[in-house]
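Re-run with default settings, no changes from the original entry. Doing this only to confirm the output is reproducible before filing.
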Amino acid sequence: MPANKIIYLSYADNDRQVASDLERILQTLLEGQIFFRYFDLRAGASILDVMDDAISDSKWFILLLSSMSMDSPWIQREYQLATFRKLESINFNIIVVNIDGVAIPRDLRIALESEYLVNLYDAIDREGELINIAQYIERHNFTGKKKQIFVDRGEQADRFSFATRYHRVIFVSGMPGIGKTAFVINKVSQQLDKRPLTISLTQGKGNSIDYVARQILKESYVTQPMDRNIQGETDLIMLAADAITKRERHFFLFIDNLEYALGASNEISPSLVDFLKELLSRDVKTHIVFATTRSVQYPIEIATQCDILRLDELEDQYIEQCIDEWLADYPRHDDFMQSNQLANLIKLADGHPFAAQMIVGSLKAGITPKAWLQSSEPKFLRLRLAAKILGSLGYEKLTDLQMLILQILGLVNEPLSIDDMCKLNFLKQYKTEEVNDAIIALNSYLLIKVDESGFVTLHSFLSSYYREQLSQPKFSDRREMLVSDIAYFSYEQTLRLHDQLTSTLHTNDISDNFALARLTGEIFTYAITASKFLRISGREDLADKLPIDIKDTIRELVLYFYQEVRDYTQALGYADRWLQIRPNDPEIMLYKARCHRNLGGARNLEEAEKMLSKIEDKAKTRFFIDRIANERGKIASQKGDEALAETIFSRSVESRCDFPETYINLARIYLREARAVTGSDITRKHALAQKAVTLLEDAHKASRSATSLFEQFWFDIYIEALDMLEDQLAFPLLKEALEDAPDDPRLNFRMAEILREHGDLSDSEKYAQKASNNGSISASITLAYLYYAHARRHDEQKTIYLSQKKYKETSKEEDEIRAKLQESEKHCRQYKSQSPIHQHPVADVMLSKIYRMRGDWDSAEKIMKEYETTGSPYIICEQCEILLTKAQQRANSGDREGSRVIIEQVLSKLSSVSSIAEEQCQELRQRAIWLRDKNDL
């Protein structure tokens, strides 16, 4: 939330104009946060006698020094070191501004040496210096602000410092969550002795200069051009370069998440290159720093000015330091920092600050990491660990309101003010206090960041996670309502502010450039959000009325409709529109090919192949080449040419492709081949399944997305592969997979089946019950078999007791048999009520066994008569069980011929049974022959 700041402004009468300029800028940039008090330097009184704001959140004393103020009674009497220390003792922060270069007496210099001193007299950009003061105040809430946790990367900071001596453009690269942004904001700012002018790119934004340029104008407090016709890239490049030049003494340009502005071959977008060339040609005395997860390809024109710094994982001792500081307000901090779990969690974080942050946030939310540590070799690393923690938090700890706030932030994918959030219709059902409490909780869980201006942001990974969550079917209605809500709110805000701007310009009230810059900056912020969400809502007409048009919105919508909504027709339409703006964007050309392939049909597949042919010569990096090959393989598969698809995928894999989907697609082909294996060639089936498992494990290692969609897509195929493996190989992999997803019904069902086959009925029942509780229909029939097996064991025990004449124990066993058979029958009927009719024979075989065990042979025979023409070996075996009993009954009653006919019928049926039930068939065959020989039939 914005903090109140009390500012005492002290100056001499002759310096009133500077004081007025400073007050105006502070009021403009810190609107709603500050209250001014004035201290008359002529009075000669002690400042401590007049200050009555000890309870305010943030207190400032700004002293304007000049040749005139040096003659004031207060300076003559009260400037001692003791006075300034007393101010600090009551939590005042001190800023001294030297207006005209007046020589400061030695005693006063000593008193001020630890304070923030601004020399205004030699400033080329006086406005920039005053903005500097405003931003310094905004970023320093000493009485209430938690410091940002940052661990010093000494060696890498030294490397950065060395690079800046010879290069003006620095690329800071590293894995997601490795701490690139924190490094730039903390260490780079210190090294350059300037603050970052930060532009944070998001998906789809950064491939045309209009978004980047307008963000630079906004952060530099320069007025935005409103005329839609002025959005030629050259004009915007010049305006942005002018803004950076104007602020070069105070800022360095920091563009975060550069990967969103990189092309398919990791090259910087052409418009951003043009902007860099313009800046470098001006010899602007500042640096440009980029943070990115990808290796950057930059053109030769700027190569001599560029260097790359890669950030590696932090050592364990630094991860421990991060955890220690993040847990500072955790009630059990000391106990945890001394516990045995700490070392394991440090290992789990694997040197990644973001993973450590998620661990700490989950601890503060009340989630214990005990379950994560049960594996002897923890494998939830980096973003995958964060995804697991977020899943646990969402399911167990987050309230509906907290989840909704995270989903809104993920959907907007831009910093959002708390005030605007509360105005959304979707949140109006909650009181402002409830929203504030939810934001405070999410901030303490380290899931969001709230800045001094009341803007809330998410880490880019969290944005992706919660956008993806909204794409799930159960949230479809919420997503649609939120999109509409955000679209119309941001549209109305844009028009309201634009009307305000028009009125201001009409009355010629434009003396305050900072107010104008702030107003146009707000219009830009709302307009870019409105542009995206109005088009998503199908209101192109309203989007076209916005005073600012951002071309990157069109590109962003290609990705939105393809990846999140999976509306390939819409994505295709926006791809065509973007390619009119950027005809040679290979990334969007590839998405266009993918849209055609997903839409299917001969014509679309032909269009997809044509598009791939166009972009093959643009593929300069291995990653993009692999993506094109993967697309060609999928098209071949869709055309029914599995052999060609397998060849394409295999070649990519053999050449060490790093695109995970290729491995998955080849695994799917092997699984299709495995499913087609019939007869006795079970070895080939297992071998194909093993190939698929190996490929899927390689895909998992290659993936850095850690998104739930990828995990689900991958997991579905992985479980199918495990299902085809022989039990001996599947068992350890299942145990490992269950550590990742302990509640997954398919994994629990497969484990239950393996254990059942090996006679471990107790553990099998636990897994089967868990699978059933989590929605597995097949687990019901497994439970039915298990309860039947328990009944059989009790029946065997009863026979033993009878032989020992223990009749009391026999009675207990009979009660158990009845109870187990009743449970078994219940699960059989539950399975039949939930499964398709073609799967009912599985349950009916079990029901027949139950009836036989109860001695109800008529019911058993009746239920099996429905399958007289079946070829299922299990049904035939069950039918033969019933027939052999009938044959025995006929023989006992003297009907030798009738018994012989039934036995021959049994032997005939058994001869047609496949080898899948060979053991059971052999037993039945031997019993039939024994019965025939015994009765001399």
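The CA atoms of residues 79 and 937 lie 125 Å apart. The radius of gyration is 37 Å.
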